[in-house]
Automatic annotation (TrEMBL), chain A:
UniProt source species: Streptomyces fimbriatus
UniProt keywords, alphabetically: Molybdenum, Oxidoreductase
Biased composition (Low complexity): 1-18
Name of this chain's protein: Xanthine dehydrogenase family protein molybdopterin-binding subunit
Annotated segments matching region Disordered: 1-20
Protein origin, superkingdom: Bacteria
Length: 710, 330
């Protein structure tokens, strides 16, 4: 037995210093096991069968032949699957997407709807049998025509009010010296994280265990408890390593199907989605059409701002991509109107995808600002500085730190923005035209309640237990540093265990809130533990554990406009003979709270900016109108930026600690994406003189649009 | 995935015998296309005959000054070969423009020529496709066809051949050698691929069961000044939306000889002979380069969403030929 040795005086703080991922070695050596790799005795394998029609009814699932195939154990479908409960509200305040509640009826609401699960002894047998399963349908005509001006579109709230309005928009537009009125579109985009969704379900001593890849074990456990009407204590969900989530790894068809099969067969069942299945079963970012009207004085001060956004959702679940949201934070105007609308089509349910609302919304809004700068003859950076609001444009609340101007000043200095020739289409280098662009970024800084347990061990080490999720962000490492500082010990004496719903409730890795929410709970428990440990006193063999719960502390936070901000800069070269756009360099300066681990934070911000390049130039899921399904739904057909598309990207930050957060954190998961596509698109205009208001800016579009020398 | 029988052949006659006359058997090279198609159910062979270890992995000079390239030479080895780089630089460039390093290490010359289209309808067994299921229809004509053919297609199929390597080989008059149970044979690469017509499922003129054993490049001094330029929707690891293999011999400002082939515009690598005829004997300047492109592209029949390819190919021809002419003038 050793004595308690938390420091009374703080060693050099770990928070703010670069620290490699604590599980990095395990990941690069393959020692880290992902959900689909973990061995189980007596494991059976399920393979989902998806509908090939976009709308209709299942006539028959012809199971007889398939049940006779080698190794096949069962075929679950709407005719034999247990009924589940979908009439509840989950942790995120929304009902479950019925796409996850598999096999409950015979209706087909979209192409790629799950119609059956074939379970067999091996994955190969399950796959062969699933491909052989004959399902017949009664086909009905489908409607997937997403476009502006659909009469069946309607305003919808989602995670914010559908509409906000103040002032007389038409009057202010009429009185404006400069007006921009433009429509922008963004395509259907997919998360396409590296690790496919995978879950193993088993019953162990009356408890349901699910080993999964998800963004929050508490979240998934809560959904399964409600959907299968189980006692909360009867469900345990684990998810130790996650190869990317981006909003897609919530409750999905694979976990529910695995639980159904494990229950029916009384043995462990694993269901892994294929890449193609992920394109219809795991959510996506809806396409958007956005109309923006800006009116400004001669000097560029905004008098009128209108941002209307439309996205599609499925007929079974309402999801709002709130693209007009950023306008409620970024810019004030005497007349200000924002609306988010949806239209229900025979398509899969969209969902949260990295910077939902902000990513497509900032493209349209920040491109429109660039157009306004052109009209007014005001530098784009200066235009934004002139329109810095003192309070929330819609809420009227004060900002809890708005360091956007500092980001622009530092960014402009480092990018070499000063003296930029504003004229488009005049910089030529051989067959290429060069241009630069900028855009602003913002993302809400929030926190979710969490509980944590910190234990002082007799050997002088500490163990943190929290149902956090590290979806590749570096959260496990960040929490190690946070705990070390709160305990005033070196990080190597702290072990952080995450990804287990048995550790007590905690929020998900999402909304840029994960690390902040968990760090708050870990800090609270660790600080109390430090106070409890008496210097020189012995720690008993069972250790000393302190638990925390941040629910009350979060509830006491004053209502304010709480956001991260950023300024994005990009330089592009456009080959006018081929229409190819290449980003040459990119810089993002962010005001995003205290940065816990500069090493992983930079990765996350650069990753977000890379996502922005991909969004600007590459990503588009194409829906085939005849079938209602996707065309080329794989990673050869769905183009994401490759290494060769990604130039030297620099991401850095200004000092911006959140005064109301115990560690000063705001959250960095999403801000790097925001505004990045607009900066690239604005640079393309500066290069060519052509406004590309539809993403992605592909060679075919550049060639069609023409421009100088094209 | 259907269970299949796997055999590895040790010599060419053995491979041909193992395949026999079985229409359900396939030769397996690097597997970089066939295995994908097996995963998606487009190909469901009962037997695979692995030919990757056949002694066809050499690149050798021919007596007349050309090169003989074995069918199992990997893309990586082909692109790295000093004689390929010296005598046919566009071929090395074309190979390196394709796929990724890992795929090029696996993929073989024979497999490259016989790879299938990447049309998304062909790849999706839940959709009609005349190439996959003759007579079922071609959804691309009225559906998604941004990257489909503008030359030589028919209402029955508008898919493009995805090869980069083949474009350069076509420009340099490559000849394909094959082996059958009845003995060896040869086909000019330009004649390997059949016209689309109303039989898009019949892709090559190879006899049933034929094993491609190699490709022979005749001597082509003009190829020493050659270039391959590929345009795609991202900087790497994507199939072309348009590409050009070009070689140019210029003397006193006049084109003595020109070779030109297009990729990603037709069901096969497209030898641009009409353009070559315009170029030969013409001044080496942009006006004639554009006229040559126009002569070839006069036959283009774009669909509503792929007309940009005509602009793209015209621009590419002018750009690449101009670069070669500038190089020649230096």
């Amino acid at each position: 037995m050793t004595t308690a040795t938390t420091g009374r005086t703080a060693p050099a703080g770990a928070v703010g210093t670069a620290h490699p991922r604590v599980e990095g070695r395990d990941k690069v050596t393959g020692a880290a096991r992902y959900a689909g790799d973990i061995p189980f005795a007596d494991l059976a394998h399920g393979r989902l069968v998806l509908s090939t029609v976009a709308r209709g009814r299942i006539r028959a699932v012809e199971t007889a032949d398939v049940l006779g195939m080698p190794g096949v154990l069962a075929v679950l479908h709407h005719g034999n699957a247990p009924r589940v409960d979908t009439d509840y509200t989950g942790m995120l305040g929304v009902p479950p997407d019925p796409t996850a509640a598999v096999f409950q009826h015979d209706r087909i609401p979209h192409a790629g709807w799950p119609v059956a699960l074939v379970v067999a002894e091996t994955p190969e047998q399950a796959r062969e049998a699933a491909e052989a399963l004959v399902v017949t349908y009664e086909r009905q005509p489908h409607d997937i025509a997403f476009r502006a001006g659909r009469p069946d579109a309607y305003p919808a709230d989602g995670h914010m009010p559908a509409a906000t309005e103040k002032g007389d928009l038409e009057a202010e537009l009429a009185a404006s010296a400069h007006v921009v009125d433009a429509e922008y579109t963004t395509p259907e985009e997919h998360h396409a994280m590296m690790e496919p969704h995978a879950a193993t379900a088993l019953w162990d001593g009356g408890r349901l265990e699910v080993v999964d890849s998800n963004q929050g074990t508490t979240w998934i456990a809560d959904e399964l408890v409600k959907m299968f009407s189980l006692e909360p204590s009867a469900v345990r969900v684990r998810s130790e390593h996650v190869g990317g989530g981006f909003g897609s790894k919530g409750l999905r068809a694979h976990q529910v199907a695995a639980v159904m099969a494990a229950t029916a067969l009384r043995r462990p069942v694993r269901v892994v989605l294929t890449r193609r299945q992920m394109f219809s079963l795991t959510g996506y970012r809806s396409p958007t059409t956005q109309r923006i009207r800006l009116g400004a004085d001669a000097d560029g001060r905004l008098r009128a701002l209108e941002h209307r956004s439309l996205n599609q959702t499925s007929t079974v679940w309402e999801f709002v991509e709130p693209s007009s949201g950023p306008a409620r934070v970024m810019y004030d105007a005497d007349a200000h109107r924002t609306v988010n609308e949806v239209v229900r089509l025979d398509v899969p349910s969209p969902t949260w995808m990295r910077a939902p609302g902000e990513a497509p919304g900032s493209f349209a809004l920040e491109a429109a600002l660039d157009e306004l700068a052109e009209r007014c003859g005001v530098d784009p950076v200066e235009l934004r500085l002139r329109n810095e609001p003192g309070r929330g444009p819609v809420s009227g609340l004060p900002f809890a730190g708005r360091n956007l101007a500092a980001c622009f000043r530092e960014g402009a200095r480092r990018f070499g923005w000063a003296g930029r020739d504003p004229r488009p289409g005049v910089r030529r280098e051989g067959r290429r035209l060069l241009g630069t662009g900028t855009a602003a970024a913002s993302f809400p800084a929030g926190a979710l309640p969490a509980t944590a347990a910190v234990t002082a061990q007799a050997d002088g080490t500490f163990t943190v237990r929290i149902a956090a999720a590290d979806i590749g962000t570096g959260a496990r490492t960040a929490l190690t540093l946070v705990a070390a500082d709160a305990l005033r010990v070196a990080p190597d004496r702290v072990r952080v265990r995450i990804g287990d719903s048995d550790f007590g409730p905690a929020g998900l890795a999402g909304g840029s809130m994960g690390t902040r929410s968990w760090a708050w709970a870990v800090t609270a428990a660790a600080e109390e533990l430090r106070d409890r440990l008496v210097p020189g006193a012995a720690v008993p063999p069972e250790g000393i554990t302190v638990r925390s719960d941040t629910t009350a502390a979060l509830g006491a936070l004053a209502q304010q406009e709480r956001h991260s901000f950023g300024a994005q800069f990009a330089e592009v070269a456009v080959d006018v003979t081929t229409g190819e756009v290449r980003v040459r360099r990119m810089l993002g300066i962010f005001a995003a709270g205290r940065i816990v681990n500069p090493l992983t934070a930079r990765s996350q911000l650069v990753g977000g900016m890379t996502w922005g390049i991909s969004m600007a130039l590459h990503e588009e899921a194409v829906r085939d109108h005849a079938s209602g399904g996707l065309y080329g739904a794989d990673l050869a057909g769905y183009h994401i930026a490759t290494h060769a598309d990604v130039p030297a990207i620099e991401a850095d930050w200004v000092d911006d600690p959140d005064p109301d957060d115990p560690v000063g954190i705001k959250g960095i998961g999403e801000i790097g994406v925001v505004g990045a596509a607009a900066a690239v698109a604005n640079a393309v205009w500066h290069a060519t003189g052509v406004r590309h208001r539809s993403l992605p800016i592909r060679p075919d579009r550049v060639l069609r649009a023409g421009g100088p020398g094209v | 995935m259907r269970e299949f029988d796997y055999r590895r052949a040790d010599d060419v006659p053995g491979a041909v015998a193992l395949l026999g006359a079985d229409p359900d058997a396939r030769y397996l090279g690097g597997g970089t296309n066939l295995v994908d198609l097996m995963k998606t159910g487009v190909e469901r062979p009962a037997r695979l005959v692995d030919v990757r270890r056949l002694p066809l992995d050499r690149i050798e000079p021919t007596d007349d000054g050309g090169l003989r390239i074995g069918a199992t030479v990997t893309n990586s080895d082909l692109a790295a070969h000093p004689e390929v780089r010296r005598r046919y630089p566009a071929l090395a460039q074309a190979v390196l423009a394709g796929a990724s390093g890992q795929l090029r290490n696996m993929a073989t010359v024979g497999g490259n020529l016989l790879q299938r289209t990447r049309c998304g309808y062909f790849a999706d067994v839940s959709r009609p496709c005349n190439k996959r299921v003759p007579g079922s229809g071609c959804p691309a004509v009225t559906g998604e066809h941004r990257n489909h053919a503008v030359l030589g297609a028919s209402e029955h199929c508008v898919a493009v051949h995805p090869s980069d390597m083949g474009v350069a080989l076509t420009a340099f008059d490559a000849v394909v050698s094959y082996e059958t149970a009845d003995g060896p044979g040869q086909l000019p690469l330009d004649g390997l691929y059949l016209p689309v017509g109303d039989t898009p499922h019949r892709e090559t003129a190879l006899p049933a069961g034929a094993l491609v054993t190699g490709v022979t490049l005749p001597p082509a001094p003009v190829a020493a000044r050659s270039r391959y330029r590929k345009v795609r929707e991202r900087a790497s690891y994507a199939f072309a939306i348009g590409s050009v293999a070009a070689a140019l011999d210029v003397s006193n400002g006049i084109v003595c000889e020109a070779r030109l082939a297009f990729g990603a515009v037709a069901s096969r690598p497209w030898r641009a002979r009409a353009a070559e005829r315009v170029l030969t004997g013409a001044p080496a300047d942009e006006e004639y380069f554009a006229a040559a492109a126009d002569a070839e592209l006069a036959a283009a029949r774009p669909l509503p969403d792929n007309g940009y390819k005509v602009t793209l190919m015209r621009n590419l021809v002018v750009a690449v030929l101009s670069e070669l002419a500038e190089e020649a003038a230096r």
